[in-house]
Amino acid sequence: PIRVVDGLPGAGVLQVTNGSMAGGPVTLQQAYTEAGLFRFRIDDGTRFSDSPIINMKPGSLASLSLALPASLEAGTTAQIQVTLLDGFSNPIPNLPTILSLDNSALGTLLNPSGLSNAFGLLNVDFQASAGGSGPGTFIARSGSFSASQGFRLLGPPVTSLSFSGYGQSTGKGSALKTGDLVTINAAYEAGMA
User: Fold this and answer.
1) pLDDT digit string (tens) for 141-191?
2) Three-state SS for 105?
3) CA distances (Å), 106 to each of 80, 128, 131, 134, 159, in order?
């Protein structure tokens, strides 16, 4: 039988798991579902022979996805993560990727393009506009693949607090006294209830 030597890496699926040899050279068409280093072992129950270590590269891009923070707020910086995977969910390193924003009034992508790292990730910083708010979409592209993720940028706070009444002098301003009215003018962005 032919099998992968334990631990190198051992978690993938081998296309051919056994075969028969009738003498002479044998050629096997082989596939393995996990990128990384591994080798084959051929044994007849008594003797064995290991292949040299083989570096299996990830396959072609099959999945492109975006991850955003739960909320994006005006005037803050957030990290947007793009993930690139092959058909067996192996990360694809060194793949050129570009991230764009459909509405530049919402903010700026500080490093919008680059190569995916060893884990198939590209991290892009987003600086949200200080006074911006509303819906937007991030779009990631790599080769012929693209993915988009919608978001809503929360605007700056618009709630105000005011006091009415006579108050009491404290030497540093006024303090409220029993019976003074406190007014909170709560307001929020349109569409945010």
Assistant:
1) 999 999 999 998 987 765 555 555 555 555 565 666 677 766 666 555 544
2) helix
3) 14, 6, 8, 8, 21
Choose among 159, 160, 161, 158: nearest CA to 176.
161
Query: For residue 140, which amino acid is it?
Result: A
Q: Where are the beta strands (DSSP E) in 44-188?
A: 48-50, 54-56, 63-67, 72-73, 77-85, 96-101, 107-109, 113-115, 121-128, 134-142, 145-154, 160-164, 168-169, 174-175, 181-185
- For residue 139 the two structure tokens come to 């779009």
Note the pLDDT tens digit of each residue in 31-86.
667 787 777 777 667 777 777 887 878 889 999 999 998 778 888 999 999 999 99
Q: Is the peptide bond before 9 cis (omega within 30 degrees of 0)?
A: yes
Stated as kind and residue range, the H or E segment containing 99 is strand 96-101
104 in helix, strand or coil?
helix
Residues 17, 42: contact at Cβ < 8 Å? no
Q: Which two tokens stand for residue 126?
A: 């987003």
DSSP lists the bridge partners of residue 160 as 185
What is the identity of the amino acid at 173?
G
